[in-house]
Specification:
Bound molecules: adenosine-5'-diphosphate, magnesium ion
Mean pLDDT: 90
Low-confidence stretches: 257-264
Strand content: 25-35%
Distance between the termini: 42 Å
Shape: globular
Structural class: alpha+beta
Number of strands: 19
Helix content: 25-40%
Number of helices: 12
Strand order of the largest sheet: 6-7-8-3-9-10
Radius of gyration: 24 Å
Length: 363
Amino acid sequence: MKAKNIMSGLKIENLRVTYGDVVAVDGVDLQLERGQIAALLGPSGSGKSSLLRAVVGLEPSTGRILWQGEDVSQVPTFRRGFGLMFQDGQLFAHRNVAQNVAYGLKGMSRSRVRSRVARLLEVVGLVGYGSRSVAQLSGGEAQRVALARALAPGPALLGLDEPLSALDRSLRERLSADLREILLSQGTTALYVTHDQDEAFAVADRVGVLIGGRLCAFGSPAQVWSQPPSAQVADFLGYGPILREGAAQEIGLGKSAAMVPSFGGEDAAKQRTPSVVALAPGAVRVVAGISEVAPGLVPVRAPAQVLQVGVRRGHVQVRAQVLARQPFTVLAVAPLCADFAKLEPGSEVCLAVDPRSIAITAE
Ligand code: ADP
Ligand code: MG
């Protein structure tokens, strides 16, 4: 078998971006194989755009940025051969769709430009749109045109800065899957910045979590999701509640023999002390009674009181307060049936937890 070329793709070493006293990117190391897509997740102001702009060469930085083994951090932007696509597409309003896509195709014969533009419109699913005015496009179509334009020069690496965040959720879901297919079909290595977890996990081979300019997690979507390296990352990903080990133990969710989480991994459970127990969304279920806990689920050993009940897509959602020594609230899932939908605030419910949806991580 051929050994993998370790110099292939992107390698970032100790990258720092500062604006006066503000440290926007704080010593980031990251490695991405050629052709892979990495999503960088993080709250607003966590340094995502700064990191992206530094990689493509639009922001001064220190540290090293290696592409195919070569340090490009001092190479001028236009010679890096990287591209960038923004949230609002920034299409030229006075040019039609084809002219927008052709924008980056300098020095090509007219017939080659025409065929390349036609090919790209096909790739992004807009065959026949060439002569339309960009003013007539929907938000989703405009972003497809922006993507075609960014891909036109065949960038080795494409940065995408929240490319779908101006679109509504259902469109974003569809387009993020399409975007992944398109980037893969072009073999484009991509850094994809977003603050939307679903989008990041839908689009990426690698997911990174940036908090306060630091890359706090980086790995495959399954790794990052199942083994968040800290309570802070778990919290950002939407885990909750996140319980100190003692509190978890009190209600029967400690990392005892019966409760070694398959999801968080045994290693994680052993290595990390002091540890916290983080419950993934959907981990907590409402059950009819403590004797009716399905095999594989672990009963919560504390009374719980209903605070609020609502019907959601395909299930009933119950917000409940667990009356442990230190009470905390949970969002529990119940099957969509009348008994559960009728639960009154103030009534008692029995809860159980799916241990596969628990991660044990560091405080
Ligand atoms: P994100 O894209 O994750 O929202 P940014 O990279 O835009 O984060 O910003 C990271 C930090 O750097 C923030 O504190 C922001 O206020 C600051 N920042 C970004 N751009 C500039 C700038 N041009 N001048 C000064 N501070 C900036
Ligand atoms: Mg940004």
